[in-house]
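U., I forgot to send this yesterday:
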Amino acid sequence: MTDLPKQRVDTPTNFPPFEQPCPIRDVLDRIGDQWSLLLLESLAPGRKRFSELGREIGDISKQMLSRTLKQLEQDGFITRTVYPEVPPRVEYELTDLGQSFRGPMQALVQWADANHRVIVEARNRYRGLD
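Result:
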């Protein structure tokens, strides 16, 4: 039996690190949180200021609004533009990536709206509340 030279085998540790190895879970973790879809939906018609977004969403704290906007900007869904005015004006809008998500987002929103009653009824049956 001859000894073959050992070859390097690439394993996931040889590749650049990702926060999440599963692309589906990685993306759904972001857009599936409590606020991201609502903010993306709110920005679909066009750019808005921080205060406008806060009023539209209603029950989101300023801290959570700021954090979610930063995460969406980090992931490339939105852009943040600061205007050199006094007081400073900041506007947010969807990027091309954010715009490309509008179709799937609308389908999800419509599906959720059409099936919400059925889902609530199933939850109640499961809990014995029907």
